[in-house]
Amino acid sequence: MVSVIGADGRDPLHDRRDSLRDRPDSPRDRPDSPRDRPDSPRDRNGRAEHSDMRTRSDLQSNGSGHAGLLGEVGAPSAAAAERAPSAAAFGASKAAAARTTRLLLVEDDRLLADALSRMLELAGFTVYVTAFGEDALDLARAYRFDVVLLDLSLPDMDGHAVLQKLRIARPEAPVIILSGETALESKLEGFGEGADDYITKPFHSDELLARVNAVLRRARAAAPSELVLGPLVLDLAARRALVAGSQVPLTAKEYACLEFLGQRRGMTVTKEMFLQHLYGGRDEPEMKIIDVFICKLRRKISEAGSPALIETVWGRGYTIANEL
Protein backbone atom coordinates (compact mmCIF):
# COMPACT_ATOMS: atom_id res chain seq x y z
CA MET A 1 0.00 0.00 0.00
CA VAL A 2 1.31 3.45 -0.88
CA SER A 3 0.73 6.72 0.91
CA VAL A 4 1.00 9.66 -1.46
CA ILE A 5 2.18 13.04 -0.30
CA GLY A 6 0.80 16.22 -1.84
CA ALA A 7 2.63 19.16 -3.38
CA ASP A 8 2.51 21.12 -0.11
CA GLY A 9 4.37 18.37 1.70
CA ARG A 10 1.30 16.95 3.45
CA ASP A 11 -0.65 13.80 2.85
CA PRO A 12 -3.57 15.18 0.74
CA LEU A 13 -5.92 12.85 2.58
CA HIS A 14 -4.55 13.44 6.10
CA ASP A 15 -7.45 15.57 7.28
CA ARG A 16 -9.94 12.89 6.34
CA ARG A 17 -8.05 9.80 7.53
CA ASP A 18 -9.95 9.45 10.81
CA SER A 19 -13.22 8.88 8.97
CA LEU A 20 -12.02 5.94 6.88
CA ARG A 21 -13.83 3.24 8.79
CA ASP A 22 -17.17 5.04 8.75
CA ARG A 23 -17.38 5.60 5.02
CA PRO A 24 -20.94 4.99 3.72
CA ASP A 25 -21.29 2.70 0.77
CA SER A 26 -23.88 4.71 -1.10
CA PRO A 27 -22.92 7.98 -2.85
CA ARG A 28 -26.17 9.56 -1.69
CA ASP A 29 -25.17 8.91 1.93
CA ARG A 30 -21.78 10.57 1.61
CA PRO A 31 -21.18 14.05 3.07
CA ASP A 32 -21.86 16.93 0.73
CA SER A 33 -18.72 18.82 1.74
CA PRO A 34 -15.53 17.55 0.04
CA ARG A 35 -13.59 18.53 3.15
CA ASP A 36 -15.73 16.26 5.28
CA ARG A 37 -15.93 13.37 2.88
CA PRO A 38 -14.32 10.06 3.80
CA ASP A 39 -10.94 8.99 2.62
CA SER A 40 -10.71 5.86 0.56
CA PRO A 41 -12.51 2.77 -0.67
CA ARG A 42 -12.11 -0.52 1.08
CA ASP A 43 -9.60 -3.05 -0.05
CA ARG A 44 -10.68 -6.42 -1.38
CA ASN A 45 -11.16 -7.78 2.15
CA GLY A 46 -13.31 -4.88 3.28
CA ARG A 47 -10.57 -3.13 5.27
CA ALA A 48 -10.14 0.61 5.03
CA GLU A 49 -6.86 1.57 3.41
CA HIS A 50 -4.53 4.36 4.54
CA SER A 51 -4.92 6.23 1.27
CA ASP A 52 -7.20 5.91 -1.68
CA MET A 53 -4.23 6.40 -3.96
CA ARG A 54 -2.15 3.25 -4.01
CA THR A 55 -0.22 0.71 -6.02
CA ARG A 56 -0.88 -2.99 -5.77
CA SER A 57 1.75 -5.52 -4.66
CA ASP A 58 -0.43 -8.60 -4.41
CA LEU A 59 -0.48 -9.62 -8.07
CA GLN A 60 0.23 -13.23 -7.23
CA SER A 61 -2.88 -13.69 -5.07
CA ASN A 62 -5.43 -16.43 -5.56
CA GLY A 63 -6.95 -14.77 -8.61
CA SER A 64 -10.25 -13.82 -6.99
CA GLY A 65 -11.70 -10.51 -8.09
CA HIS A 66 -13.82 -8.83 -10.67
CA ALA A 67 -14.81 -10.59 -13.84
CA GLY A 68 -13.27 -7.71 -15.77
CA LEU A 69 -9.88 -9.31 -15.25
CA LEU A 70 -10.98 -12.06 -17.57
CA GLY A 71 -12.64 -10.33 -20.46
CA GLU A 72 -15.21 -7.59 -20.80
CA VAL A 73 -14.79 -5.00 -18.07
CA GLY A 74 -17.78 -3.27 -16.56
CA ALA A 75 -20.22 -5.89 -17.83
CA PRO A 76 -22.20 -7.97 -15.34
CA SER A 77 -22.51 -10.85 -17.77
CA ALA A 78 -21.05 -14.13 -16.52
CA ALA A 79 -19.96 -14.90 -20.07
CA ALA A 80 -17.36 -12.15 -19.77
CA ALA A 81 -15.46 -14.25 -17.27
CA GLU A 82 -14.81 -16.86 -19.94
CA ARG A 83 -12.58 -14.59 -22.03
CA ALA A 84 -9.12 -13.75 -20.71
CA PRO A 85 -7.05 -10.89 -22.15
CA SER A 86 -4.92 -12.34 -24.91
CA ALA A 87 -1.23 -13.11 -24.51
CA ALA A 88 -0.52 -10.82 -27.46
CA ALA A 89 -2.22 -7.89 -25.72
CA PHE A 90 -0.27 -8.45 -22.53
CA GLY A 91 2.97 -8.86 -24.46
CA ALA A 92 2.48 -5.59 -26.31
CA SER A 93 1.62 -3.81 -23.06
CA LYS A 94 4.68 -5.10 -21.25
CA ALA A 95 6.88 -3.99 -24.13
CA ALA A 96 5.32 -0.51 -24.05
CA ALA A 97 5.71 -0.36 -20.28
CA ALA A 98 9.27 -1.66 -20.19
CA ARG A 99 10.34 1.48 -18.37
CA THR A 100 8.39 2.58 -15.30
CA THR A 101 5.02 3.71 -16.63
CA ARG A 102 2.80 5.40 -14.07
CA LEU A 103 -0.92 5.21 -14.61
CA LEU A 104 -3.59 7.00 -12.55
CA LEU A 105 -6.96 5.24 -12.38
CA VAL A 106 -9.86 7.40 -11.18
CA GLU A 107 -12.78 5.03 -10.62
CA ASP A 108 -15.23 4.83 -7.68
CA ASP A 109 -16.54 1.33 -8.42
CA ARG A 110 -14.43 -0.74 -6.05
CA LEU A 111 -14.70 -4.04 -7.89
CA LEU A 112 -14.06 -2.48 -11.27
CA ALA A 113 -11.11 -0.44 -9.97
CA ASP A 114 -9.63 -3.54 -8.37
CA ALA A 115 -10.00 -5.58 -11.56
CA LEU A 116 -8.52 -2.86 -13.76
CA SER A 117 -5.58 -2.20 -11.45
CA ARG A 118 -4.71 -5.89 -11.31
CA MET A 119 -4.97 -6.30 -15.06
CA LEU A 120 -2.86 -3.21 -15.78
CA GLU A 121 -0.18 -4.18 -13.27
CA LEU A 122 0.02 -7.63 -14.82
CA ALA A 123 0.59 -5.83 -18.12
CA GLY A 124 3.57 -3.98 -16.64
CA PHE A 125 2.14 -0.66 -15.43
CA THR A 126 2.53 0.96 -12.01
CA VAL A 127 -1.06 1.78 -11.11
CA TYR A 128 -2.37 4.36 -8.64
CA VAL A 129 -6.05 4.24 -7.72
CA THR A 130 -8.40 6.85 -6.28
CA ALA A 131 -12.18 7.08 -6.11
CA PHE A 132 -12.34 10.86 -5.78
CA GLY A 133 -11.78 13.70 -8.22
CA GLU A 134 -10.16 16.00 -5.66
CA ASP A 135 -7.65 13.35 -4.69
CA ALA A 136 -6.87 12.67 -8.34
CA LEU A 137 -6.07 16.35 -8.82
CA ASP A 138 -3.87 16.40 -5.69
CA LEU A 139 -1.97 13.40 -6.99
CA ALA A 140 -1.63 14.78 -10.53
CA ARG A 141 -0.16 18.03 -9.19
CA ALA A 142 2.41 16.18 -7.09
CA TYR A 143 3.40 13.42 -9.53
CA ARG A 144 3.87 13.05 -13.25
CA PHE A 145 1.68 10.33 -14.77
CA ASP A 146 2.15 8.82 -18.21
CA VAL A 147 -1.59 8.28 -18.65
CA VAL A 148 -4.83 8.89 -16.70
CA LEU A 149 -7.95 6.71 -16.88
CA LEU A 150 -10.90 8.82 -15.75
CA ASP A 151 -14.44 7.74 -14.90
CA LEU A 152 -16.94 10.58 -15.30
CA SER A 153 -19.27 9.51 -12.46
CA LEU A 154 -17.42 10.33 -9.25
CA PRO A 155 -18.86 10.82 -5.76
CA ASP A 156 -17.34 14.23 -4.97
CA MET A 157 -17.24 16.17 -8.24
CA ASP A 158 -18.22 15.92 -11.88
CA GLY A 159 -15.77 14.00 -14.05
CA HIS A 160 -15.83 16.72 -16.71
CA ALA A 161 -14.69 19.25 -14.09
CA VAL A 162 -11.86 16.90 -13.11
CA LEU A 163 -10.82 16.63 -16.76
CA GLN A 164 -10.75 20.40 -17.20
CA LYS A 165 -8.56 20.85 -14.12
CA LEU A 166 -6.28 17.99 -15.15
CA ARG A 167 -5.68 19.72 -18.47
CA ILE A 168 -4.56 22.83 -16.56
CA ALA A 169 -2.43 21.00 -13.97
CA ARG A 170 -0.88 18.48 -16.36
CA PRO A 171 -1.54 19.45 -20.00
CA GLU A 172 0.97 16.87 -21.23
CA ALA A 173 -0.66 13.86 -19.53
CA PRO A 174 -2.93 11.80 -21.84
CA VAL A 175 -6.42 11.24 -20.43
CA ILE A 176 -8.70 8.36 -21.45
CA ILE A 177 -12.32 8.65 -20.35
CA LEU A 178 -14.06 5.49 -19.11
CA SER A 179 -17.82 6.01 -19.17
CA GLY A 180 -21.10 4.18 -19.39
CA GLU A 181 -22.52 7.15 -21.33
CA THR A 182 -22.66 6.21 -25.00
CA ALA A 183 -24.35 9.34 -26.37
CA LEU A 184 -22.45 11.20 -29.07
CA GLU A 185 -22.92 14.48 -27.18
CA SER A 186 -21.05 13.12 -24.16
CA LYS A 187 -18.17 11.91 -26.30
CA LEU A 188 -17.89 15.23 -28.12
CA GLU A 189 -17.95 17.09 -24.82
CA GLY A 190 -15.12 14.93 -23.48
CA PHE A 191 -12.96 15.40 -26.55
CA GLY A 192 -13.71 19.12 -26.52
CA GLU A 193 -12.44 19.34 -22.93
CA GLY A 194 -9.16 17.69 -23.83
CA ALA A 195 -9.64 13.93 -23.56
CA ASP A 196 -7.32 11.87 -25.75
CA ASP A 197 -9.68 8.91 -26.02
CA TYR A 198 -13.13 7.83 -24.87
CA ILE A 199 -14.04 4.23 -24.03
CA THR A 200 -17.60 3.22 -23.27
CA LYS A 201 -18.45 0.54 -20.69
CA PRO A 202 -18.52 -2.39 -20.99
CA PHE A 203 -15.22 -2.75 -22.83
CA HIS A 204 -12.84 -5.63 -23.46
CA SER A 205 -9.53 -5.60 -21.61
CA ASP A 206 -7.59 -6.13 -24.85
CA GLU A 207 -9.17 -2.98 -26.27
CA LEU A 208 -8.31 -0.96 -23.16
CA LEU A 209 -4.68 -2.10 -23.24
CA ALA A 210 -4.43 -1.31 -26.95
CA ARG A 211 -5.85 2.18 -26.47
CA VAL A 212 -3.58 2.91 -23.48
CA ASN A 213 -0.52 1.86 -25.49
CA ALA A 214 -1.67 3.96 -28.46
CA VAL A 215 -1.94 7.18 -26.43
CA LEU A 216 1.40 6.41 -24.76
CA ARG A 217 3.10 6.10 -28.14
CA ARG A 218 1.69 9.44 -29.29
CA ALA A 219 2.58 11.19 -26.03
CA ARG A 220 6.14 9.89 -25.98
CA ALA A 221 6.72 10.84 -29.59
CA ALA A 222 5.71 14.43 -28.77
CA ALA A 223 7.56 14.66 -25.45
CA PRO A 224 10.67 16.88 -25.18
CA SER A 225 13.95 14.99 -25.26
CA GLU A 226 15.89 17.38 -23.01
CA LEU A 227 15.40 19.30 -19.78
CA VAL A 228 17.62 22.38 -19.43
CA LEU A 229 18.49 23.52 -15.91
CA GLY A 230 20.87 26.42 -16.44
CA PRO A 231 24.22 24.93 -17.49
CA LEU A 232 22.96 21.42 -16.68
CA VAL A 233 21.15 19.47 -19.41
CA LEU A 234 19.21 16.28 -18.75
CA ASP A 235 18.93 13.86 -21.67
CA LEU A 236 15.56 12.35 -20.79
CA ALA A 237 15.76 9.54 -23.32
CA ALA A 238 19.27 8.38 -22.39
CA ARG A 239 18.76 9.27 -18.69
CA ARG A 240 22.02 11.12 -18.30
CA ALA A 241 23.12 14.57 -17.12
CA LEU A 242 25.54 16.79 -19.05
CA VAL A 243 27.46 19.97 -18.21
CA ALA A 244 29.15 21.69 -21.16
CA GLY A 245 28.72 18.49 -23.16
CA SER A 246 30.45 16.28 -20.60
CA GLN A 247 28.49 13.59 -18.78
CA VAL A 248 28.09 13.84 -15.02
CA PRO A 249 28.71 10.37 -13.48
CA LEU A 250 25.42 9.75 -11.68
CA THR A 251 23.95 6.52 -10.38
CA ALA A 252 20.43 5.56 -11.47
CA LYS A 253 18.93 6.75 -8.17
CA GLU A 254 20.87 10.04 -8.26
CA TYR A 255 19.68 10.73 -11.79
CA ALA A 256 16.10 9.87 -10.82
CA CYS A 257 16.25 12.38 -7.95
CA LEU A 258 17.67 15.08 -10.21
CA GLU A 259 15.07 14.54 -12.95
CA PHE A 260 12.26 14.44 -10.38
CA LEU A 261 13.41 17.79 -8.99
CA GLY A 262 14.02 19.31 -12.41
CA GLN A 263 10.53 18.48 -13.63
CA ARG A 264 9.13 20.31 -10.58
CA ARG A 265 11.14 23.52 -10.69
CA GLY A 266 9.91 26.04 -8.17
CA MET A 267 8.11 23.36 -6.16
CA THR A 268 9.27 21.95 -2.82
CA VAL A 269 9.77 18.20 -3.13
CA THR A 270 9.52 16.42 0.21
CA LYS A 271 11.58 13.41 1.22
CA GLU A 272 8.38 11.36 1.30
CA MET A 273 7.77 12.26 -2.34
CA PHE A 274 11.31 11.22 -3.25
CA LEU A 275 10.89 7.87 -1.51
CA GLN A 276 7.59 7.23 -3.26
CA HIS A 277 9.09 8.12 -6.63
CA LEU A 278 12.23 6.03 -6.17
CA TYR A 279 10.82 2.96 -4.45
CA GLY A 280 7.08 2.97 -5.20
CA GLY A 281 6.15 2.28 -1.58
CA ARG A 282 7.92 -1.08 -1.58
CA ASP A 283 11.00 -1.85 0.54
CA GLU A 284 11.62 1.80 1.28
CA PRO A 285 14.87 2.61 3.13
CA GLU A 286 15.12 5.22 5.87
CA MET A 287 14.29 8.78 4.89
CA LYS A 288 17.86 9.98 5.46
CA ILE A 289 18.89 8.17 2.26
CA ILE A 290 17.41 11.14 0.36
CA ASP A 291 19.85 13.50 2.10
CA VAL A 292 22.68 11.20 0.99
CA PHE A 293 21.50 11.26 -2.64
CA ILE A 294 21.15 15.07 -2.63
CA CYS A 295 24.59 15.52 -1.03
CA LYS A 296 26.20 13.36 -3.72
CA LEU A 297 24.27 15.14 -6.46
CA ARG A 298 25.44 18.55 -5.28
CA ARG A 299 29.06 17.40 -5.12
CA LYS A 300 29.07 15.78 -8.56
CA ILE A 301 27.29 18.69 -10.23
CA SER A 302 29.76 21.13 -8.66
CA GLU A 303 32.74 19.03 -9.72
CA ALA A 304 31.38 19.07 -13.30
CA GLY A 305 31.57 22.88 -13.28
CA SER A 306 27.94 23.83 -12.68
CA PRO A 307 26.89 26.35 -10.03
CA ALA A 308 24.69 25.14 -7.17
CA LEU A 309 21.19 24.23 -8.39
CA ILE A 310 19.52 22.32 -5.56
CA GLU A 311 18.29 24.40 -2.64
CA THR A 312 17.25 23.13 0.80
CA VAL A 313 13.81 24.13 2.11
CA TRP A 314 14.41 23.59 5.82
CA GLY A 315 11.94 21.29 7.47
CA ARG A 316 10.28 20.40 4.17
CA GLY A 317 12.57 19.14 1.44
CA TYR A 318 14.45 20.35 -1.62
CA THR A 319 13.79 22.50 -4.68
CA ILE A 320 15.35 23.83 -7.89
CA ALA A 321 14.47 27.47 -8.46
CA ASN A 322 12.50 28.52 -11.52
CA GLU A 323 15.06 31.20 -12.35
CA LEU A 324 18.57 29.85 -12.93
* Beta-strand content: 15-25%
Radius of gyration from CA coordinates: 20 Å
Element pattern in H and E: EHEHEHEHEHEEHEEEEHEHHEE
In the CATH scheme, the class of the largest domain would be: Alpha Beta
CATH topology of the largest domain: Rossmann fold
Shape: elongated
What structural category characterises the helix and strand content?
alpha/beta
Helix proportion:
25-40%
Order of strands across the biggest sheet?
A: 3-2-4-5-6
Q: Got a strand count?
A: 14
The tally of helices reads 9
- Rounded mean pLDDT is 74
Low-confidence stretches: 1-71, 75-84
C-alpha end-to-end distance: 37 Å
Largest sheet properties: 5 strands, parallel
Search tags:
Rossmann fold, 2 domains, 9 helices, five-stranded parallel beta sheet, alpha/beta, Arc Repressor Mutant, subunit A, disordered N terminus, 16% strand, 324 residues, four-stranded antiparallel beta sheet, elongated
Tell me what the structure shows.
By secondary structure, the protein is of the alpha/beta class. The chain has 2 domains: 14-222, Rossmann fold (3-Layer(aba) Sandwich); 226-320, Orthogonal Bundle (Arc Repressor Mutant, subunit A), CATH 1.10.10.10. The chain is 33% helix and 16% strand. The chain is built from 9 helices and 14 strands. The strands form 4 sheets. Strands 3-2-4-5-6 form a 5-stranded parallel sheet, with helices on both faces. A 4-stranded antiparallel sheet has the order 8-9-10-11, with helices on one face. It has a 3-stranded antiparallel sheet with strand order 12-14-13. Helix 5 (184-192) links the parallel strand 5 and strand 6 (197-200). Mean pLDDT is 74; it is low at 1-71 and 75-84.
